[in-house]
Structure prediction request, 314 residues.
Amino acid sequence: MATYVLKRLVAMVPVLLLVSIVIFSLLHLTPGDPVVVMLGEEATPESRDALRRELGLDRPLPIQYGVWLGRVLQGDLGRSIRTHQPVSEAILQRLPVTLELSLLAMVVSLAIALPAGIVAAVRRNSNADLLSTVFSLLGVSMPNFLLAVLLIYVLSLQLRWLPPIGYVNPFEDLGANLKAMIMPSITLGTALAAVVARLTRSALLEVLNQDYVRTAWAKGLRESVIIQRHAMKNSLIPVVTVVGLQLGNLLGSAIVTETIFALPGVGRLVIDSIFQRDFPLVQGVVLYLALIFLLINLLVDLLYAYLDPRIRYG
Prediction:
């Protein structure tokens, strides 16, 4: 197992290298000049050239990338062009908000999806199955921003149950923090819940048709025992795969949600940095998110061995 994990960690290096090349090239090839953004259109050519030399933007792109990559290999992601704050420090300040939002969205989605998928599979072709199908279609088809606006209008403006925007540190006031995160979590988790519910239903239906499940029914075991001990665990592998991939996607999908609800997370940091042409900050955020996504995929693969003893890594 340790050898397998080590090989996977080593295999992440070329992937992260490719990600860094792609994001560096895209940022520097898109229109816009950070020097103009910082100094304004009225700045003199001399002042622009001086700032460009100071930031190292006057060098050829391969040299700029080589200098940046050399610093990254030493653990230095550089400094923000706008605030001069170390990129790692800026990301680590915002990352807990995004991680909290993603984990809460995952909890919301699983709390909805797993019971809905199980009931739809066990009560196949019933009204519960029909309701699960309708919910899945609505969840997948409704855009996040539209659901966010509807939630704000109903729960905040009309019923006044929840604050419309803002964020409270959980260490300062946990209750206020959870109230502020309810609508963003529902917004981000609904689409995932719809996908997981349908996948749980189809995977569980396939397992319920296996011979060993029919044998359990013939032995007179209770339905709850058959579902929990025999069927559910064996149907979780495709569900875990999708949940793991979607958890990584939630970190990227949080950009829109954080912007709408004014959450000070990594997604909002990326949006602000793109508008300000803050190249080092955007590059650092993308590398962080790519690394987290790769680690989540590794964790999902390790969970396979727990769910199915026949799977061995070594």
